[in-house]
User: Fold these one by one.
Assistant:
Number 1:
Amino acid sequence: MILCDIGNTFLHFYYRGRIWKEEKTKLTPKDSKELIMYISVNEDSTNTLLYAHPRCFDLTPYLNIDTNYKGLGIDRIAACKAISDGVIVDAGSAITVDIMQQGIHLGGFIMPGIAKYRKMFSSISVLDCEMNLGVDLDTFPQNTRDAVSYGMLNSILLMLKNTSKNKKIHFTGGDGKFLSRFFKDCFYDDLLVFKGMQKAINENFTSQGIYV
Amino acid sequence: MILCDIGNTFLHFYYRGRIWKEEKTKLTPKDSKELIMYISVNEDSTNTLLYAHPRCFDLTPYLNIDTNYKGLGIDRIAACKAISDGVIVDAGSAITVDIMQQGIHLGGFIMPGIAKYRKMFSSISVLDCEMNLGVDLDTFPQNTRDAVSYGMLNSILLMLKNTSKNKKIHFTGGDGKFLSRFFKDCFYDDLLVFKGMQKAINENFTSQGIYV
C-alpha cells in the first residue's frame, strides 16, 4: 500500500518508510499491484493520479475529527488526527495552523506560505527581492530586503507564539523544519499527514479484517 | 502650490487643505500656473505627471532624515519627517512601519497590504475568498474565510503591538483608518506625508526668501 497526500503544488507519497514528492506533470509509474490510498485538495492532480495508476482509493470519507470548522481541508484533518493535544502547523504554499485539545479541534487559521510572500511583493518593483531568512529579529531592519523578510518572518512567528502559549507546536510541511528552529520544545514531523491517514486506515479497515 | 505624493497605485494630491487621488491614466488637468511639488516611488507615474503638467519640482533632494536605513522610500522619509517620536504606519499596497525616536529613524519593516493578501491566496482556489475584516479575533476561526482573514489581520496587529510597546502609533494611508480602530490612544492622519513635504519646503525654501 502506498499513501498519497495530493496538495496544490505536489503529490506527496509514502511507501515503506520512505517519503517523496512528485509534480503532477511528472508522475513516475508505480507498481500496478499496489493500492494507492489518497487524500486530495486538488482535483486536477487527483485526476492525473487516477489516470496514471489503476488501483487508487480515496480515504476522505474515513477521515473524521471532532470539529465545528466548516470546510476544513482533508490534509489538515489528517494532520490533526495524528495529534490529540497541541498546535499543528503545516507550512507549505499556505501555512495552516490548527489547535487540538483532548482530541477536539478548536479551530484554526491560515497565513500565506513563505514563498507566497515574495510573489506578493513582486508587483511592487522596489520590493521584489529574495527573502533573507537569516534576518536579525532583535533589531529593526536597515534595508529593504531585511525589512520585507522581518515583516514576513516575525509576523508568522508572533502568530505562532501567540497561539501556542502552553501548548506544544507540531510542525510539518516543506517550511516546517525551518520554522521549528525558532521554538524550543517543539516537534517537527514530516509524516504527520501520513500518520493521520494510517490511523484512519487502522480504525476503519484493519478491525474489519481488511489488512492493508 | 500643489503637493503630490506619487505611489505605486495612485498619485495623491494636496491643494489648499483638500486631498484627493488620481490614477496615472486619468490625470485631470491642473492650473498650469501652479507649481506641483512632488515626491515619487514610481517612475512611470512620474513621467505621466511631468508630461501632463508644465511646472513640476522634485522635492526628493530636500527631504532628509537621520537614519542608517539604506534605500528608504521617499514617501516613508516624508512621513517620518513629520513625527519625531512614535511608530509610523503607512497602510497602502504595502504596509510600511517605521520607528522614530527623538528625531532619529531607528529602522522599519514592510508587510503586504490588506488587498495584497487576497491576491496571495488567489492562486490557491479553495482560499480565494473575500476577507472578513470584521472577523472575531478572540476565538479561533471556524471556516475558511474567517481563517484567512484572522491570519491576515491578527498578524498585522500583533506586529504593530509588538513594535509600538510604549510608543504611539501614527497611522496614514488607505487602510490606516481601519487599522487605527484596533488601538487605543493612537493617531490617524491622512496628511502625514504631505506634512513632512511641507516641513522640508519650509526648512529649505522659505528661509531663503522663496515663499511657495
Number 2:
Amino acid sequence: MTTAVVWLGGLTGSTPAQMAPSDPLPSWNDGATKQAIVEFVSRVTTTDSPDFVPVEDRIATFDNDGTLWAEQPVVQGMFVLARLKEMAAADPSLNQRQPFQAALTGDVEYFKQAGEEAIMELLAATHANMTQEQFEQEVRSFFETGVHPTLGVPYTQVTYKPMVELLEYLRANEFQTWICSGGGIDFMRVISQQFYGIPPQQVIGSSIKTEFIEQDGKATIWRLPELGRNNDKTGKPVGIDLHIGKRPVFAAGNERSGGDIAMLTYSQGRPGASFQLLINHDDAQREFAYQESDNASLNAAQTNGWNVVSIKNDWKQVF
Amino acid sequence: MTTAVVWLGGLTGSTPAQMAPSDPLPSWNDGATKQAIVEFVSRVTTTDSPDFVPVEDRIATFDNDGTLWAEQPVVQGMFVLARLKEMAAADPSLNQRQPFQAALTGDVEYFKQAGEEAIMELLAATHANMTQEQFEQEVRSFFETGVHPTLGVPYTQVTYKPMVELLEYLRANEFQTWICSGGGIDFMRVISQQFYGIPPQQVIGSSIKTEFIEQDGKATIWRLPELGRNNDKTGKPVGIDLHIGKRPVFAAGNERSGGDIAMLTYSQGRPGASFQLLINHDDAQREFAYQESDNASLNAAQTNGWNVVSIKNDWKQVF
C-alpha cells in the first residue's frame, strides 16, 4: 500500500486522496499517544518483528466506566434510581422507608452513615430476587428510554468515539476485545454488543450469586441478593484470570479511583510486549474534569511508563 | 455441490468418489444419532429455516470427563497422584502422614471415613499455595510425560475421536465451542487448545480462590487453598451463565453421576431450537462400560427427548 501511494504520488505530483491509507483512529489528534498506539499494534502484528504476538495471545481488556463511556454519573447508578422510582410509583410507602427514601431524594449523607448494608439493600431490591431473563428485560427497558441526566442524550451517545474506534482498530488487527469493569457483568452484557461490538461472553464484571432453579416447569438462573465477586481494583486481574486465563497484551483504564492500576500492572507483567493506556479526565469543556485525591493512577502511569490519554489534547472528538 | 454430483454421476454412470461431499463425522457410524446431529446443524444454519440460529447465538458446551476424553480413571486424579509421588520423593515423611499415605497407597476406605476435609487437604497440597504460572508449568510437565494407567498411551490419545470431529464440525458451521466441566478450570486450560482446538477463555470449570499479589516485584495471581466454585451438576448452568451469559444451542454430556442433567435441561430451556447429546458408556470392549446406580441421566434423556450416543453402536472408532 505504502509503495503504491508513493509511486502514484510521484506520477501525479501529489498523493491522491483516494489512495491514502485511511486513518483507523480519525477521532484522535495526531500526537504521541495515537502514534504510540499505532506503532505498538504494528510491532506486535508484524510476523518478523521481535515483539510479534500470535493471534491467540492478542487479548485486549478495557475498563468501562470512564474508559469506554462517561461515568459522571455512573450509568448503572442511574439504572438503580430509575428502578427505584418505578418501584415507588407502584408502592408509595417506599418514599418513607430507608434506604429507599434516601436514594430517591439523593440523600448522600444517609449512605455515609448507613454504609454498605444500605447499598446492598438497594442492590438486592433492584438487581436480585428475579430470573436472569427478567433482569435483562429491565436493563433493556432502561436503555430504550433512558436519557443521560446532564448530557441530555440517550446512553448510546455517551460512549467515547475515540475508544470505540480503538476497539475496532484492535479487532481489525485480530485482537480479541474484552470489557473488564467494576460494573455489573449482567448489566453490561445487555448492551456490550450494540455499544462496543463486544459479545456478552467477553464481558467481565462484578456479579451477584446465582442459582439454577426450575420454576413453573422451566429451568432458569435465579439472582440471589448476595455479592458474588467484586471486579474492581485487585479484583480485575483475578477476573481476567478466571474468564480468560491469560494476561492482556493491551489494557486500558482511567483515573478516578485507582480502579485500573492492578489490571494495568498485571498486563505489564506478561512476558513479551504489552501496552497500557490510562485516560486522564482533564476536559471540563467537552466532558468532565476530575482527579484522584491521591493521584495514584497518574503516579503509577508515570512510574511504569504507561501511556496517558489527555482527553483535552488527544481526542479530536469525545462523543 | 449436490447438483454437480448428481450431474457428474449421470454423465459417468456412477458418482465419482472425488466429488462426493466429504463426511464431516467419519468416526461415527451411520445411524439415528449421526443423522440427528447433521440434520440439526443443517436446520439451524440454513438462513430461511424457521429454526435458523444467528452466528452470535451458536454456543455449544461440552462436558470433558467421559464426554471428550476417557474418565476411567479421571485424568486430574492421576495428576494429583503424580504430584503426590513427586512430593513424597522429596519428603518421604509424607508416606507416613495422612491423608497423603492413603492417597499414595490407594486406600479408598480412608477417604470414605475422612471425607471432604481430607480431599481438600490433597487439593490444597497439589493445586494451591503457588502462582498461576507455577501451577500451569506443573500441569504441562504432567502431560508431557504422563501415560494412561490402563490404556498405556499418552493422554493426548485418550480423547474421543468422534467427539473431536464433532467439535470441528460445529466450528466449521460457526458454532463457538466451549468446555463446561466439573474438572479444574486451570488444569483443562493448559491442554484445551492442543487437545480440542478450544482456547483457554472458552473453558468453564471448577475453581479455587485466587488473589492478586506482587511478589519479588512481579505482579501475579496466587492460588489459595480454598474452593471457589464447584462447576458440577447445577453448578454447570451457573458457570455457563457466568462465563457466557447465554444458553447453549448445543450441549453434550455423559452418564455416570448425573453431572450433566442440569446443563442439558438449561440448554433445552432456551427459546428456539436446541440439541442435547448424552453419551452412554456401554462399550466394555473398546472403552469402559459403566452405569449410574439410579439411571438418572438416561431417564432424563428418555423423558426429555435428548439424543443418546451408544458408544458401542454409534462410534466406528473410539480413540
